[in-house]
């Protein structure tokens, strides 16, 4: 099974990378689309106020293999 690379970009720190299954990535994308203030990856909670963006590489979402990114906060 292929893993999806997920990168969290912080407002004032170095990026943090995770690998997860495609199913986990799709679930997280759906959660973020609900405009939540926080979300969890591998039992660690992240607050969107601390992040500038999150990116997903090579995720099969809505029938297509694609890269997806979300920006948080005021841009």
Question: Could you explain how this protein is built, in words?
Answer:
The protein is α+β, with helices and mostly antiparallel strands and 75 residues long. Helices cover 16% and strands 55% of the residues. It is built from 1 helix and 6 strands, in the order ββαββββ. A hairpin with a 5-residue loop joins strand 1 and strand 2. The termini are far apart.
Average per-residue pLDDT, rounded, comes to 93
Round the Cα radius of gyration to an integer and report it. Answer: 12 Å
Could you give the order of strands across the largest sheet?
2-1-5-6
| Biggest sheet layout | 4 strands, antiparallel
Number of DSSP E strands: 6
Share of helical residues:
10-25%
What is the distance, rounded to the nearest whole angstrom, between the alpha carbons of the first and last residues? Answer: 36 Å
- Percent strand equals over 45%
> Segments where pLDDT lies below 50 for 5+ residues?
none
Task: Provide the succession of SSEs.
Answer: EEHEEEE
Give the helix tally: 1
> What class do helices, strands and sheet pairing give?
alpha+beta
Shape: globular
């Amino acid at each position: 099974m292929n893993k999806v690379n997920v990168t969290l970009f912080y407002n004032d720190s170095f990026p943090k990378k995770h690998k997860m299954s495609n199913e986990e990535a799709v679930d997280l994308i759906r959660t973020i689309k609900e405009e939540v203030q926080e979300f969890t990856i591998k039992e660690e909670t992240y607050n969107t106020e601390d992040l500038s963006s999150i990116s997903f590489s090579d995720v099969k979402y809505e029938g297509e293999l694609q890269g997806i990114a979300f920006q948080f906060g005021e841009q």
